[in-house]
Amino acid sequence: MKKYEIMYIIRPNLEEATRKALIEELSDIFKAHDSTVVKVSEWGLRELAYEIQKLTKGFYVVLDVEATEEARAEFDRVIRLKEDVLRYLIINDVR
């Protein structure tokens, strides 16, 4: 398994319960594919560096995971379909 750091930005206008459910759903993808979510960091609402879909703020979430290639690919597939996720980035963690 490889280590990954994943950051994604959620729409700022989501209700807290909906946002928590989305974060849990995305984390569960790894658990369902024999991978481990080491840490979930919710950075909170922050200014975006540039406007995305006419929004200037977003809710930042960072995941540290140890995942199989299948789990990473499934996460990539699912997060692309989520309209409430503005942007995401998956990085191989070599720390």
Task: For the structure shown, list the relevant keywords.
single chain; 95 residues; alpha+beta; Alpha-Beta Plaits; 4-stranded antiparallel β-sheet; 2 helices; 4 strands; 32% helix; globular
Q: What's the layout of helices and strands?
A:
Layout: E1 2-10, H1 16-32, E2 36-52, E3 55-67, H2 69-81, E4 85-92
Antiparallel strand pairs: 1-3, 1-4, 2-3
> How confident overall, as mean pLDDT?
94
Biggest sheet architecture: 4 strands, antiparallel
Shape verdict? globular
> How many separate domains?
1
Proper CATH architecture? 2-Layer Sandwich
Q: What CATH first level would be assigned?
A: Alpha Beta
- CATH-defined fold name: Alpha-Beta Plaits
Distance, first to last CA: 14 Å
CATH homologous superfamily label: Ribosomal protein S6/Translation elongation factor EF1B
- Put simply, the count of helices is 2
Strand content: over 45%
Q: Your description of this structure?
A:
This protein is α+β, with helices and mostly antiparallel strands. It has one domain: Alpha-Beta Plaits, CATH 3.30.70.60. The protein has two helices and four strands. It has helices at 16-32, 69-81; strands at residues 2-10, 36-52, 55-67, 85-92. It has a four-stranded antiparallel beta sheet with strand order 2-3-1-4, with helices on one face. β2 and β3 form a beta hairpin. α1 (16-32) runs antiparallel to α2. It is globular and about 35 Å long.
